[in-house]
Write a structure and sequence with these properties.
Distance between the termini of chain A: 45 Å
CATH class of chain A: Mainly Alpha
Helix content of chain A: 55-70%
Strand content of chain A: under 5%
Structural class of chain A: mainly alpha
CATH superfamily of chain B: Cytochrome c oxidase, subunit III, four-helix bundle
Shape of chain B: elongated
Largest interface: A-B, 45 and 41 residues
Strand content of chain B: under 5%
Number of helices of chain A: 16
CATH topology of chain B: Four Helix Bundle (Hemerythrin (Met), subunit A)
Helix content of chain B: over 70%
Largest sheet of chain A: none
Order of helices and strands of chain B: HHHHHHH
Oligomer: heterodimer
Number of strands of chain A: 0
Number of strands of chain B: 0
Order of helices and strands of chain A: HHHHHHHHHHHHHHHH
Number of domains of chain B: 1
């Protein structure tokens, strides 16, 4: 059989069979162990959570348009910002890129048929759903008003809301995250196709690998922290209760030992996406492959040593604060290495002004602002002023939304044709990108000013002098919201009426572009043998 | 794929499945082993948080810790240490027997391991009952009288949380041992396929190892 020689023809002759239509029915999806289907279910689930948490954000901004109590009571406001934060962090940003895009793309990029432990992969999706139900159940029960950080002693002794349900949900979500990370590390180590050496991995995978290390090493600490919190609230065991000799600051140490590395769980995969988008859409060999690859690992490791910068005002010793401040500055080095390498990659490339590329450009701009505004926050003296103000809110959103989420949406556009087999309409997609960029900056750049002028975070009202800036920020949130809904519309339109996607719409060189769109269940009809790197483009600069 | 299924059938050893996405039984075995080790890393970090809390509070409330630890039963702790160390040995022998396709020896060793784990839990049950009876409980539930120092409740919080979570690991371990015991009895394992025995074995050694730290820290040093 000449199947091997004419692999291309086989894809077309396979009778239109692919992973989506290979089996039919809800049960076939719920019992699947195919990483692509699991990835798709992750995407739908996390995007749903993104929408719910985003609607909370819009409600918050409407309440903040005018000073005083408008339509949310202070207690309702507290619950809305808590659920916005908790759902965005635990149900959307952390699982979305590894669980959704990562699951889909990782095995294909290394020429494997699946992840190393497919059933474990399905289990992690089920755990995600279980954790989501616990967390989201608080919306219909008594809500949650602790902030997404669940700080003790408020969460253990004062709050009347469903702390245990949500923290137990986050506990379960942690296991989901650990299993995903574990699966990916083993898959990258053991299932690379012949010729896929470590330095031939797309940079997306170096980023996912670094993320997985953080997931494995940090998440267990969150698990024990939340377990202690639950025991504290249920039985008053006293480990975090100052009245019984416990220490609430110990909770903060434990919490941030996970939650600071967790921001790298959120941003690192985004950086991986950007590396791939920029190289492919500039048709240019990536500049500084090893520098980008190892800076991911460096960020993951240094990220473990900076948690104390969340606690400059928590009564930590001056010496500890100084050391944490210094190490925090050090994170800027590998991040800077990445930004310069991405910019250099574009230089002399043949840049396509496609939607993914526009998102990548937005990312560069927004992430740079987000990163640079992190530096003043790392200075102990300045942070005493800016701590718990809108400056922190703006910085955080520039990195998380302007960085991770923009990269995620860019990645969705980049791999959309591969995942669905459909092209999307470029014009509305670009308009959406522009709306998101403008709306995002209107919303959050304003908040840097609010913060430096003393607007504290998590307040449902404010002094009159902040009113114009708050109103402007709220208008921005509408533009941002409109942009995001336009993305949704573009994707739905693409599913219904989009053109059939070719195998390789962007001219990429990594393995996922060598199989059909959408790929067959087994990804490749025969195991590919790789003889070139993922970014070996003809144009290698001027 | 071909080679994998041939490997599975060679030498008349029992059947096992090489999943479709692995190119050989060896890759599947290596992947499983790496997965287990990574899981053990997460376990170490999970308990790491508790050990950290132990050291901080011991440093703060040294006198309370010294006073409170005299209320733990060293004999029972030592007995449990013997049970767990012996069970680690029998587990290691079970893995060895499985690797050499010695079915009945595997089953016997796993059975002894299971029994020793049960003995550990029985002793733990008597210890807990005794503590509860004396009111030596965590935090707000602490009701024992006659303590010279203030913070014995913190010690018992650490004690109950650490040994409780460890005990939960023992219970889970017994479930896993039972599962491979049944599979071993059915004749699933051979020198070509013993990954589940080895995986459960590694987990069991970790459970033992954590106790080896818990016993001196809580019972002897205090």
């Amino acid at each position: 059989m000449s199947r091997a020689a004419t692999a291309d023809a086989v894809y077309d002759e396979s009778g239109g069979k692919n992973y989506i239509n290979a089996e039919k029915g809800v049960v076939s999806w719920l019992t699947t162990v195919d990483h692509k289907r699991i990835g798709l279910m992750y995407l739908v689930s996390t995007l749903t959570m993104f929408m719910i948490a985003g609607i909370f954000a819009l409600i918050l901004r409407i309440e903040l348009m005018k000073a005083g109590e408008d339509f949310l009571t202070p207690a309702m406001y507290n619950q809305a910002f808590t659920l916005h934060g908790a759902m965005m962090v635990f149900l959307f940003i952390i699982p979305a890129i590894p669980g959704g895009l990562g699951n889909f793309i990782l095995p294909i990029m290394i020429g494997a048929k699946d992840v190393a432990f497919p059933k474990l992969n399905l289990l992690s999706l089920y755990l995600y759903w279980t954790g989501s139900i616990f967390t989201a159940s608080s919306i219909v029960s008594t809500g949650l008003d602790t902030g997404w950080t669940f700080y003790v002693p408020y969460s253990t002794t004062v709050s009347q809301t469903s702390v245990i349900a949500v923290t137990f949900g986050a506990f379960i979500l942690g296991f989901s995250s650990i299993l995903t990370g574990l699966n990916f590390i083993v898959t990258i180590h053991k299932l690379r196709a012949p010729g896929v050496t470590w330095y031939r991995l797309p940079l997306m995978l170096w980023a996912i690998y670094a993320t997985s290390i953080v997931q494995i090493l940090a998440t267990p600490v969150l698990a024990i922290t939340l377990l202690l919190l639950i025991l504290e609230r249920a039985f008053q065991v006293g480990i975090f209760d100052p009245k019984l000799g416990g220490d609430p600051v110990l909770y903060q140490h434990f919490f941030w030992f996970y939650s600071h590395p967790a921001v790298y769980i959120m941003i690192l995969p985004g950086m991986g996406i950007i590396s791939d988008i920029i190289a492919v859409h500039s048709h240019r060999r990536i500049f500084g492959y090893k520098a980008i690859a190892f800076s991911s690992v460096a960020i993951a490791l240094v990220g473990f040593l900076v948690w104390g910068h969340h606690m400059f005002t928590s009564g930590q010793s001056e010496l500890a604060s100084t050391i944490f401040s210094f190490i925090t500055f050090f994170v800027a080095v590998p991040s800077g290495v990445k930004v310069f390498n991405w910019t250099s990659t574009m230089w002399g490339g043949s840049i396509a002004w496609s939607t993914p590329m526009l998102y990548a450009m937005s990312f560069l701009f927004l992430f740079t602002i987000g990163g640079l505004t992190g530096l003043p926050l790392a200075m102990v003296g300045l942070d005493l002023h800016l701590h718990d103000t809108y400056f922190v809110v703006a910085h955080f959103h520039y990195v998380m939304m302007g960085g991770a989420v923009i990269a995620f949406i860019g990645g969705l556009h980049h791999w959309w044709p591969k995942m669905t087999g459909r092209m999307y309409h470029e014009t509305p997609a670009k308009i959406a990108c522009a709306l998101i960029f403008v709306g995002f900056n209107m919303t959050f750049f304003t908040q840097f000013f609010l913060g430096t002028r003393g607007m504290p975070r998590r307040y449902h009202t404010y002094l009159d002098q902040f009113q114009p800036l708050h109103a402007f920020s709220t208008f921005g949130s509408w533009v941002l919201g409109a942009g995001l809904f336009l993305v949704l519309f573009t994707f739905i339109h693409s599913l219904l009426k989009g053109e059939r996607a070719p195998k390789n719409p962007w001219g990429g060189k990594s393995l996922e572009w060598e199989t059909s769109s959408p790929p067959p269940t087994e990804n490749f009809h025969r195991t590919p043998v790789v003889t070139h790197g993922p970014y070996d483009f003809a144009t290698t600069g001027k | 794929m071909m080679s994998a299924s041939t490997e599975a059938h060679e030498k008349g050893s029992p059947d096992f499945v090489v999943a479709h996405h692995f190119d050989s039984a060896d890759t599947q075995f290596d992947a499983g082993r790496l997965g287990i080790w990574l899981f053990l890393v997460t376990e170490v970090l999970f308990f790491g948080g508790l050990f950290c809390a132990f050291f901080i509070y011991r440093n703060w409330y040294f006198d309370s810790f010294v006073e409170a630890h005299h209320h733990l039963d060293k004999q029972m702790g030592a007995l449990n240490t013997v049970f767990l160390i012996t069970s680690s040995l029998t587990m290691a022998l079970a893995v060895r027997a499985a690797q050499r396709t010695k079915r009945s020896e595997t089953v016997n060793m796993l059975f002894v391991t299971f029994l020793l784990a049960g003995c550990f839990l029985v002793v733990k049950y008597f210890e807990y009952t005794h503590k509860i009876h004396d009111g030596l409980l965590p935090g707000a539930m602490f009701s024992a009288q006659g303590f010279a120092t203030q913070h014995a409740g913190v010690f018992f919080a650490i004690y109950f949380v650490m040994t409780g979570i460890h005990g939960l690991h023992v219970v889970i371990g017994m479930g896993l041992i039972l599962w491979i015991l049944i599979r071993a009895h059915r004749g699933d394992f051979s020198s070509r396929y013993y990954a589940p025995v080895e995986g459960v074995g590694l987990y069991w050694h970790l459970v033992d190892l954590i106790w080896i730290y818990l016993f001196p820290l809580l019972y002897l040093v205090g």
